[in-house]
Write a structure and sequence with these properties.
The protein has 284 residues and is of the alpha/beta class. It is built from eleven helices and twelve strands. 44% of the residues lie in helices and 23% in strands. The chain has a five-stranded mixed sheet, sandwiched between helices. The longest helix is centred in the first third of the chain and has 22 residues. The radius of gyration is 22 Å and the shape is elongated.
Length: 284
Amino acid sequence: MNTLDIDTVQAFLLVAELQSFTRAAEARGTTQASVSMKLQRLERVVGKRLVERSPRAVALTAAGAAFLPNARALLEAHDRALSGETPARQQLSLGISDHAAGPELVPMLERLHALSSQLALSVTIGFSRQMLDAYDAGELDAVVVRQEGSRRGGEKLTVDEFGWFAAKRPGWRRGDTLPLAVLAPPCGVRALAIRALDKAGIAWTERFVGGGVSAVVAAALAGLAVAPLARRIAPPGLLDIGPTEGLPRLASSKVMLHAKVSDPAKRAALRTLAAAFRSVVGPA
């Protein structure tokens, strides 16, 4: 009688959720070849092909999609059997920079929850500087932030390119004072934009100061001002007017993961978090 191996089922779930053997290997702290071998072993046991592999994408077959809920149920039952019927949920406190979060936040948290369902998440959104201060004070287990100054360490998740985004009719002409939509200090993106404008000798004024990136985006969409944004964050309806309007090029910015956890479950969750972020954003 064939018997399912928990390790191979875990590998399948990671591949299914992250849609990548590379990201699954990152989450497990192993090699892509090891993940592939485990999945092949699982497919031999169930007697069906569960995943379609191609150079550009990984997708579940019909058999793989049907097997997915059963695989999740098996892992949950396995965890309950190890921990007892009412295992104490550990909490992972995570701080995320508002400018770093972007549209990837929802799918990233969905995948993290699907793969670490026994872990309770506490997520705080704010400025990178504030998140790092809370992290340094021991108030957060980990932070996903933009690289600050000369700070070292951490794991690079991606590199963001920035632009000057405005509505299709920004209501601003070259030579006029540039109306800006930004976050309040100590926002690093605000500082980056103002330094670039001052160096280029372009007059500017803060037309709109938002409490979050969503508010800044709304102001730009409404035609109130021009917003310095990472390209992956800018929604449809906004255009990068920098090249056509002669605005200075903005420096790129690294998005970093800083963490200090010793618990194996939390470390595994953070590996999954990093892999999930990259699976949504794409290669750094």
